[in-house]
Design a protein that fits this description.
The chain is of the alpha+beta class and 146 residues long. It has one domain: OB fold (Dihydrolipoamide Acetyltransferase, E2P) (Beta Barrel). Helices cover 20% and strands 40% of the residues. It is built from three helices and nine strands, in the order αβαββββββββα. The strands form two sheets. The protein has a five-stranded mixed barrel. The longest helix has 19 residues. Component of the RMI complex, containing at least TOP3A, RMI1 and RMI2. The RMI complex interacts with BLM. Keywords: DNA replication, DNA-binding, Nucleus. It is found in: Nucleus.
Length: 146
């Protein structure tokens, strides 16, 4: 069976890392500003974890579709998501109060994290469960990766 070769960009980008907004606020950019390829977070004492593509979850606080952005809040703070109008099936989950997942590339870390969206999904149907489990999922994945 024929398998097309992946481009070098597809091969280089690691899978998304689950993170909290507070971890991005203190992240260090290790590459070119805005490249999104070389950020270090600190998941624990003396540990660092390289990230570029992140997976975050939070509640929609404000959607500014005319500016192509949305403000989300997880249990550790707020973060902005850019490029939301370009996400297929993304607009239905951009109402205030919805609980959503966003996968994206880090654009900035402070004073407020900014993510350029690659994928979004509405998790509102089971929001209570997702909210309760999210921090545990983040911690578990970071322990495995670190």
């Amino acid at each position: 069976m024929y398998k097309p070769e992946k481009s070098s960009v597809e091969r280089k980008r690691p899978p998304p890392v689950k993170v909290l907004s507070c971890q991005l606020r203190s992240a260090d950019n290790q590459g070119d500003a805005g490249s999104g390829d070389s950020w270090l977070i600190r998941p624990g004492k003396g540990r660092t974890l390289p990230v570029s593509l992140v997976w975050m979850q939070g509640t929609v606080m404000r959607a500014q579709l005319d500016q192509n952005t949305v403000l989300l809040m997880d249990e550790t703070g707020t973060f902005s998501v850019q490029g939301v109008n370009n996400i297929p099936k993304g607009k239905p989950c951009l109402s205030q109060g919805k609980y959503v997942m966003v996968m994206g590339v880090i654009q900035a870390a402070s004073p407020e994290p900014v993510i350029r969206a690659v994928k979004m999904a509405d998790l509102s149907e089971h929001a209570t469960l997702h909210r309760r489990m999210w921090k545990l999922e983040v911690e578990e994945l970071q322990q495995v990766l670190g």
